[in-house]
Amino acid sequence: MTNFVVKTLANAGALAVAIWLLEGITLDDGSSLGRRTLTLILVALVFGLVNLIVKPVVKLLSIPLFILTLGLFTLVVNALMLLLTSWVAKQLHLSFHVDGFWTAVLGGLIISVVSWALNLALPDKD
Question: What percent of the chain has pLDDT over 70?
């Protein structure tokens, strides 16, 4: 259970950094800090579920592209997962939005790096 909470908080932190750095990734600016934090945590949960359920299938189906691009296709897959998270968040009436593919590529890169660093720093217990 602790591992799930740590990974969700790392995702939330990484999403927050991407929102802060990129104008094309937004979280509703009109609400209170508590509401924004709750929305960010819910979006992090959605992002975690998308990465848990959809990402392995997409990676399996695109193995030839991973081999052909020497792994750089990972950036595209991460961007697609971020765009899917944005779409699911909209369906759940969460105020998270990603403006386009190239914003999603940059956002995916930022989220990957920050999440990796946070997962190194945070404890990893079950």
Answer: 94
